[in-house]
Here is the input.
Amino acid sequence: MNNFKFLLIALFVTSFSGFSQTPTDFLSKDFHKNRRDALRVKMPTNSVAVVFANPVRNRANDVDYVFHQDPNFYYLTGYREPNGVLVLFSDEQTNEKGVSYNEILYVQKRDKRAEQWNGKRLGVEGAKNELGFKVALNADEFVNSNINFKNFDRIFIEEFHDDYRNSARDKAEVYDLVVAFKEKAAYNPKNFLSPMKKQIYELIKTTSIENSANVAQIIGRALAYDPSLKSDEDLMKFKEATDDSLKKELQQKIALKLDAKTNIDITFLSANLATLREVKTTEELKLLTKAIRISAIGQVEVMKAMKPHMSEMELQGIHEFVYKKYGAAYEGYPSIVGAGNNGCILHYIENSKTKLDNELVLMDLGAEYRGYTADVTRTIPANGKFSKEQKAIYEIVYNAQEAGIAAYIIGESMAKPNVLSKKIVDEGLFKLGIIKSVDEKHPYYPHGTSHHIGLDVHDPGNYDNFEENMVVTMEPGIYIPEGSTCDKKWWGIGIRIEDDILVTKNGPVNLSSEAPRTVKEIEKMMAKKSVLDDFVLPNLDK
Ligand code: GLY
Ligand code: MN
Ligand code: MN
Here is the structure.
């Protein structure tokens, strides 16, 4: 065959096969299998893990919110559709036909009509070929299955929130799968404790009565997170008790509850998946790095394009356009673009201010690329030049961030960057006369600095010491809302700088460094031309 003919055939094949036209760089089936194996080795013998897909959420009438898979379920399976369940056994099982297996993925049944309306389903064959499951079955077979859950010593599940919608469109929706599971496994929430309750009970059991004042304080803090604890009478009585003999009596009662009998465990999966997910594999790092670089490049394009007449929403659109240009289909969390005082609202997502004027603009956005989400914040002056006051606060935050990043060292406590940054912010604000004493409890800096990112923007982890291949944010901030008890000239300044740091043997690597960070670099970037300078649309109000 001559070269020309070959070229023609090659062109024909590639243009009609469609292979090159849909993304192929998702996590590999080997990755997911490897993660299931890593979880399985942590499971005791004769145990089973049951993990459900996320439910579909209704937005309005016959329109649902865009489906997003439960990250733990995705991590273990790679399945991106709803109405699935993974059953993972610690030991080999054998079916009636003598076939052995140690995991089953139940998936949505192929359905011509449903697929015409809502897109292609992977089905059982796809789950086998594309996701690499030896045993894949339709979800309705889970509802009717005879897996004898009661025979396992331990059943590991994630805590149910009972917020599955039963649309009755299909008899094998995740709602039905959960109901079927609960029945098969004789699930009774009264038989076990929530992870938080379990921790508190253990603390009560192991703390001497002389030190019980500390425990009462911890219960108080836990209540702020989980007000449902209020319904636990013994716990509330313990918190308020002043009499030692009453405390002792309650301590014994609570210790007994810790030993309640059930084979269902709602803490094992979340704890062990946190341990797996907090350290990223090479494959994950590739996708996460891409998500981060896309987000940093979004910041660069906005720096060039920003003008005081623009709106917050318009800036959001520029960031998100860059994401989509790179094929990042979603944002990892609702985009935050806040000018001036709006920047002082930590998770401001209205983005509704129509004119930036000469304010500082806080932009906290992250592209989600193939499931992995970045989390990058830059705060820049709409007119391209920091004022004296803006610069003074900015440099404190910058120095706090630099000091924190330097502590992203293998073996260091993950709490250290936050502590270092708080000290610099306290000293800086005191020097400017914004706080009266360095011992004030950080009124203008109400959050911490460091969380894992990955499949979740706040990825699970143990938050112990830094380990190689963790990716953790470093995000100090200072927020001085209007009406604060300091000189008015500081009001409306809200600054956060957030970068995504990879922990390596050679020290911290800033994966979002493509977005300028110093005052000088930012001003230089903002002085550049943007392709959007000439992008003018018709005025609809004239
Ligand atoms: N974007 C949410 C956060 O910074 O944690
Ligand atoms: Mn963050
Ligand atoms: Mn953020």
